[in-house]
Write a structure and sequence with these properties.
The chain has 184 residues and is of the alpha+beta class. The chain is 20% helix and 30% strand. The protein is built from three helices and nine strands; from the N terminus they run βββββααβαβββ. Belongs to the CheD family.
């Protein structure tokens, strides 16, 4: 059976939004998310047949928050640790975990490249933790929809190519506006 063929039991789709982590060992569960500059990590243990996904908006908190430990679910640093720990809590072994990374697009040419920063952080984090990166679809200018079967580690990613655009400009007064106001 191919990873996404029709099954005898219905697929249970669970959306993973920014700041979330989901794990499962249920072969009928499919975790889904939509990404732009955010990054999603699909992590799985092929022996325990447990997997999970996170979805982070920013890579790391500013230094003052990192040193105090006062940061939250918006950051990859928090969500990567949380994903690993939840999987271990479900019976996975860190040394067997495999990863796939998605997202990290850069839509604007003139502002900070948040997607590239997120992608680099995710790669570096996995390397530091000794978790093998099986596949990555990162960067570019396209949005992505990811479907992940955590129990098997199977993934489908659909890219929607979009042209990079300039950063939004402030609204300006039309040249024909005279600035007059009529009172009644």
């Amino acid at each position: 059976m191919t990873p996404f063929e029709t099954r005898s039991s219905p697929v249970k789709r669970i959306a993973v939004i920014q700041g979330e982590v989901r794990t499962s060992a249920d072969p009928d569960v499919e975790l889904t998310t939509v990404l732009g500059s955010c990054v999603a990590t699909c992590l799985y243990d092929p022996v325990a047949r447990i997997g999970g996904m996170n979805h982070f908006l920013l890579a790391e908190p500013p230094e003052h928050q990192r040193s105090s430990g006062d940061f939250d679910e918006h950051y990859g640093l928090y969500l990567m640790e949380l994903l690993i720990n939840r999987m271990i809590g479900c019976g996975a072994v860190k040394g067997r975990m495999k990863a796939r990374l998605f997202g990290g697009a850069n839509f604007y040419h003139t502002i900070q490249q948040i997607g590239a920063i997120n992608a680099e952080f995710a790669r570096r984090f996995l390397q530091q933790e000794g978790i093998g990166l099986v596949n990555a679809d990162l960067g570019g200018t396209c949005a992505r929809r990811v479907h992940f079967r955590p129990a098997s580690g199977q993934v489908r990613c659909k890219n929607t190519e979009a042209k990079a655009i300039a950063a939004p400009q402030p609204t300006r007064r039309p040249p024909t506006a005279l600035g007059e106001v009529e009172l009644f």
